[in-house]
Amino acid sequence: MKPKDEAKDKAIKQATLDLVFEKGMAGVKMSEVAKKASIGTGSLYTYYKDKEALIETLYQDIEKQGTEILFKSISPDLPYPIKVKKVCFNYMTYLIKHQKEVVFKEQYQRSPFCYHTEEALSMDEKAARLIALINEGKNQHYLKQIPDLEMMLALDGIIKSIIHHYQMARQPVTQSIKERIFSICWDSLKA
């Protein structure tokens, strides 16, 4: 079997990401992906057996990239509040610089492709690392003793909502805005 061309695979994934951003996940057809990626539809099916396989692979790639960005520059020896601040700032940066990926993830998580189970959450590297960070804060009495998932959802909701507001208003998210967002997050979760 002929090895797959990485450049074509990258073009397929980028075309899919662009189309989901433009049309929504449900509206994307494999023929459109092939056309946008400048490959034949038959060639597309040698890379992915169907739309579900393509969407799932792209989601996993985006999750891996997001996890790497989220935990960038987080070392175990940092003081706990600094670790949390860095994770929050990294997340803000991700939301600002990776809007297509954010839209893709939101649509994926509301689609039939996504399976919301405790088992799926436990297998998620990002969730596992966030839960470990949250539990470190609880053990050191920095954070409230509330369920991990609720804490993750609260942080996600606060950060995503405020960043989205500034994006919709076409206003830049300045350092002082990021500091305020972090302050809101920290005040809502600290013990």
Automatic annotation (TrEMBL):
<dbReference type="Pfam" id="PF22604">
    <property type="entry name" value="TetR_HI_0893_C"/>
</dbReference>
<keyword id="KW-0238">DNA-binding</keyword>
<dbReference type="GO" id="GO:0003677">
    <property type="term" value="F:DNA binding"/>
</dbReference>
<feature type="DNA-binding region" description="H-T-H motif">
    <location>
        <begin position="29"/>
        <end position="48"/>
    </location>
</feature>
<protein>
    <submittedName>
        <fullName>Transcriptional regulator, TetR family, putative</fullName>
    </submittedName>
</protein>
<feature type="domain" description="HTH tetR-type">
    <location>
        <begin position="6"/>
        <end position="66"/>
    </location>
</feature>
<dbReference type="Pfam" id="PF00440">
    <property type="entry name" value="TetR_N"/>
</dbReference>
<dbReference type="InterPro" id="IPR050624">
    <property type="entry name" value="HTH-type_Tx_Regulator"/>
</dbReference>
<dbReference type="InterPro" id="IPR054422">
    <property type="entry name" value="TetR-like_HI_0893_C"/>
</dbReference>
<dbReference type="InterPro" id="IPR001647">
    <property type="entry name" value="HTH_TetR"/>
</dbReference>
<dbReference type="InterPro" id="IPR009057">
    <property type="entry name" value="Homeodomain-like_sf"/>
</dbReference>
